[in-house]
Amino acid sequence: MQKIPLSKSLVNNEIKQAALRALESGWYILAKECEAFEVELANYIGTKHAILSSSLTAGMFLLHLAMGLRPDDEVIVPSHTAFAGIEPMIHCGTKPVFVDVDKTYCLDTEQLERAITPRTVGIMPVHLYGHPANMDRVFEIAQKHHLWVVEDCAQSQGAKYKGKMVGSMGVASGFSFFPSKNLTVLGDGGCICTNDDKIADKIRMLRNHGRKEKYTHEMIGFNLRFNEIQAAVGRVALRHLDALNQNRRKIAAFYNERLCGLVDTPPEMPWATAVYHMYVIRVKRRDDLAKFLRQRGIDTGIHYPVPNHKQPAITQKYSDLPQLPKTEQIVDEILSLPIHGELSIEDAKTVCDAIAEFYNKK
Length: 362
Ligand SMILES: *Cc1c(COP(=O)(O)O)cnc(C)c1O
What we know:
Order of helices and strands: HHEHEHEHEHEEEEEHEEHEEHHHEH
Largest sheet: 7 strands, mixed
CATH class of the largest domain: Alpha Beta
CATH superfamily of the largest domain: Type I PLP-dependent aspartate aminotransferase-like (Major domain)
CATH architecture of the largest domain: 3-Layer(aba) Sandwich
CATH topology of the largest domain: Aspartate Aminotransferase, domain 2
Strand content: 5-15%
Number of helices: 12
Mean pLDDT: 97
Radius of gyration: 21 Å
Number of strands: 14
Oligomer: single chain
Bound molecules: pyridoxal-5'-phosphate
Shape: globular
Helix content: 25-40%
């Protein structure tokens, strides 16, 4: 039987041609392909700037430095997200203050205000699994308490909140091009989007040894640049993004219909046009179901089995961690089903049939 993977990157002839073109150009780092990719990304998201970096983790670190995050500052984040999302602020000495999730698996805005202290400087909502967080509420609270908002859009390229592109609403936003993400460069990569000229300028310098001109270093920077071959690939992938997301939405609608009543299917709120980076169900006997599916050649995943406030690196570092009952409950129940831009309805049907078989049989 054909294996059904959890996710799959777009690799077509157009992408191969683009990679070859970059290979043969003789330019490999931050040249024409990167410049064009940055312009196209900014146009797509609707921000003035998009600044490429070697990963989203790297880009977020540069963003935090550019925004002047300081030791003992606090930033409110959901615990239920990729560990990579919280590392950059910790490198600045800033403390992540974890909040629980709502039924969309994004941060619970009902609990935001309770997490604010005199040290809080910002809120970092994560549009997890491709579903936008409740941004009106986030901004309402942020404005009331004079906090900035940075959007983690690693999983939500092309998703919309009330018709607005995610990544265009906060003071800045971050995207990842890791191979499983909706928009990938077939390797590591990421970008920061912002309308703020000063922040953009600073990130551009920091990623490239603190310079604007070749031999003048205006600040101490890093080498966290981006590559031409990867940019050439990303430019093609960006042109296909909307169609691939459309297929993800079609698969999600099919799963919703077929799995409704069998398992808890993911909600899509009225404000959301979700792009289903992951299609996450909640089930009883999760590990048995995953095993049953694996035996039938169906890949699944758990995003994420251990919440960040329970990670050893965090529990060793901070003593006053919160209890987050919803997060702690869902991590034992969530299961990510196969979904990607090219998944067929036949494969989705195979997945649904296997899940139905599991629950009827036992
Ligand atoms: C993938 C991901 C990151 C990290 O992106 P990298 O490009 O791998 O550094 C951060 N946050 C979230 C929510 C992610 O899914």
